[in-house]
Amino acid sequence: MEQQKIPIQANVSDDRRSEGYVNVVYFNPAARMKEALKKLALFWGIAIVSVALPVVHFVTVPLFFCLGIFFAYRTYKSEGRVIEGLTRCPHCENEVPIKPAELQWPLTEICQNCARVVRIERK
Ligand SMILES: [Zn+2]
After folding, report:
1. In whole angstroms, what is the distance from residue 111 CA to residue 108 CA?
2. Å from CA of 94 to ligand 1 middle
3. Tens digit of pLDDT per residue, the chain (123 long)?
4. What is the Cα–Cα distance from 28 to 51, expressed in whole angstroms?
5. Using an 8 Å Cβ cutoff, are 112 and 101 in contact?
6. How far is the CA of 86 from the centre of ligand 1 (A)?
7. Most distant CA pair in the chain: distance in Å?
8. Which residue ranges traverse the bilayer (predicted)?
């Protein structure tokens, strides 16, 4: 899978903007399906194991069953993964590193300097 560098624009919910980039890898549909099934298997695995727990299994089994569907669906819907990135806080100019995550626009990061929520959008 190939990394792509994408120019981005960060904002803190006002008119100020700052530039940056993120490196992402895009999943093809087959890879997305594989990732989604892996998550489903993981959560349903936990659900099956928790059948053995007395009393709490009334909660844990349906909970993990639903969580599995939820996370698998989210993975399937995501376009790819963020590998890393960097921008600046539009408010205080501090560098804001972008952490690896599922690729879902807009991305958000917390500025470590002024604690503002930085929204990151594709340019
Ligand atoms: Zn800041």
Report:
1. 10
2. 6
3. 678 999 999 999 999 999 999 999 988 889 889 989 999 999 999 999 999 999 899 999 999 999 999 999 988 888 889 999 999 999 999 999 999 998 889 999 999 999 999 999 998
4. 35
5. no
6. 13
7. 55
8. 42-73
Interval between CA 107 and ligand 1 midpoint (Å): 16
- The DSSP result for 51-88, as a single string, is TTSTTTHHHHHHHHHHHHHHHHHHHHH--EEEEEEEEE
- Can you say whether the dihedral through the CA atoms of 54, 58, 62, 64 is positive or negative? negative
Provide the residue ranges of all domains of the chain, joining segments of one domain with +.
Answer: 1-27+86-123, 28-77
- Which single residue is written with the structure tokens 């604690």? 115
Give the rounded distance of the alpha carbon of 75 from its chain centre.
9
Centroid of ligand 1 to alpha carbon of 78 (angstroms) = 28
Centroid of ligand 1 to alpha carbon of 67 (angstroms)? 34
Instruction: Please tell me the predicted confidence (pLDDT) of residue 90.
Output: 97
- Per-position b or e across 60-91, b if 16+ CB within 10 A of its CB: bbebbbebbeebbeebbebebbbbebebbbbb
